[in-house]
Amino acid sequence: MSSQDIPEDKHLPSEQGDAHHGAVAVADDPFADPGLPVHKPRIQDIDERAAKRSERTVAMLFTLSMLATVGFIASYVSIPVDKIIYVFPIGKVSALNFALGLTLGVALFCIGAGAVHWARTLMSDVEVADDRHEIAAPADVKAKVMQDFADGANESGIARRPLIRNTMLGALALVPLSGVMLLRDLGPLPEKKLRKTVWSKGKLIINQNTMEPLRPEDVLVGSLTFAMPEGLEEDQHDFQVQIAKAALMLVRIKPEDIKDKQELEWSHEGIVAYSKICTHVGCPISLYEQQTHHVLCPCHQSTFDLSDGARVIFGPAGHALPQLRIGVNDEGFLEALGDFEEPVGPAFWERG
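Below the sequence we write its predicted structure tokens.
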């Protein structure tokens, strides 16, 4: 059927529409720019007293941020790490963590709230439409941007409202002190604590599995025995700190297989005692190859030759394992003849 065969009254409604048939008029440009809404002034724009109130509110928020930062520092210095308090409805929490989180949260929130309140009540809220342009702006556009920035700074009132400016600068200057204070938790200087362990002359070598003193005959050729010093108990509050430096491993090697002269002198009947702490990052060494006399750290595969002064033969470890000089007391038990001659575990910056 052609268009000529369609009755005239069957055509679609015209652009003018037909009220009787419910037709709707079609706009000339359905995507026309609606433009910006009519600007309505805020109360702060027409009432200077309201503007002053907003200024004081912003200044109060910035001042509260400064006080919260001071509270953060005071809490960090004064509250003991092990103090526990009850806070409803959270329950029992660390007093230090709670105080630090609360004060730092208030400090950051007040800076943000102050900036938002400043922008919404005192800075210019006139919307400006600007056409898109190429990324590489010409000189006149750059000049316009700088002028717009200057106009924005002027409209923000930062120069005319020194109370807001000064309190904002104070809040922003104090907040970073919270991060600076946290640097204290990097730890105190090692001093001599990493150079010494609880081993000393005459201390019995205790089997860490049986908790009994060791005799030479208890250490068999090809076996790996883990030990710790006499007097160190697992229920002591500093047990983990001390065992992390004093953990020992004993291996019996045929004297003729020991290549290092000092290692042979510091051993007893081929029993050598070395630190169990890897010199890479401090992992406990636990794997032993009895045919090669190599021990392997399971963390990063550092390998040490116990028949040659526990020198590093593979992996990222930086130096050999420290050896403990041992002997036998009058009762036939293995004992230490002193402390390690060098610090155990990984190297540290002031080791020298």
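Residues 43-186 form one domain.
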